[in-house]
Design goal:
This protein is an alpha/beta fold and 209 residues long. The chain has a single domain, classed as 3-Layer(aba) Sandwich (Rossmann fold). Helix content is 31%, strand content 29%. The chain starts with 6 loop residues before the first helix and ends with a strand. It holds the Pfam family Methyltransf_25. This is Methyltransferase family protein. Keywords: Methyltransferase, S-adenosyl-L-methionine, Transferase. InterPro entries: Methyltransf_25, SAM-dependent_MTases_sf.
């Protein structure tokens, strides 16, 4: 749409604007998230290096990983969310960057990209997933959410701010991950798509073969 902010700017500005509300709201696990994270971390030696792409304030994912004794690097483009992560979880390494632009020579035992990929236009998803695969050591883990259905890009509001969403459907994402050498450990709907505004959300925990 003419005059609309680029998607990464829209989401960055929106998350910065709602940082206080988000911090108060997003602090505990939802649904089976703890099960996913326990599966993701299972059998990883302590400490293992973990990368959290789209870490937000660090709660609850990064906080749990750090409390389990692992070394965590968090990436987010919303500086007001990162400020809260740095203040609350000083043991983590916190880097301001978009997921699309983040590059590193470091290798990780696991990468979390939770409720973040679907804020990025899907044309970037194949290259992001391929980059994640390259960042992982052999046998490394991925914990990921994607949209739950096939739909065009859209915007929706949260705490009065507008956010951008886009995603391949789950079967397409699973096919891309298989081609990159991932084996699913968990692949399930967190919430099914409806005929209304909810396009669904799908959780994946996978291991590099």
């Amino acid at each position: 749409m003419k005059g609309r902010k680029p998607s990464h700017v829209m989401n960055r500005d929106a998350y910065n604007a709602i940082a206080e509300f988000w911090d108060q709201t997003r602090h505990a696990f939802y649904g089976r998230e703890k099960t996913y994270l326990d599966t993701f971390l299972h059998s990883l030696p302590v400490p293992s290096p973990i990368l959290d792409l789209g870490c937000g304030t660090g709660r609850p994912m990064a906080e749990y990983v750090l409390n389990r004794g692992h070394a965590l690097t968090g990436i987010d483009q919303a500086v007001r969310l990162l400020e809260r992560a740095k203040a609350r979880l000083p043991a983590g390494a916190w880097i301001e960057s978009t997921i699309e632009a983040f590059e590193t020579e470091d290798r990780f035992a696991g990468v979390v990209c939770w409720d973040a990929l679907f804020h990025i236009p899907r044309k970037y998803h194949p290259s992001i997933l391929a980059r994640i695969a390259r960042m992982l050591i052999p046998g490394g883990r991925l914990m990921l959410t994607v949209g739950g259905s096939e739909h065009p890009p859209f915007t929706d509001t949260m705490f009065g701010e507008t956010f951008f969403y886009d995603s391949f459907p789950p079967d397409k994402v699973l096919s891309m991950l298989a081609a990159l050498g991932f084996q699913p450990l968990i692949a399930e709907f967190m919430n099914e798509p409806t005929s209304g505004r909810d396009k669904g959300r799908y959780a994946i925990v996978a291991r590099m073969t």
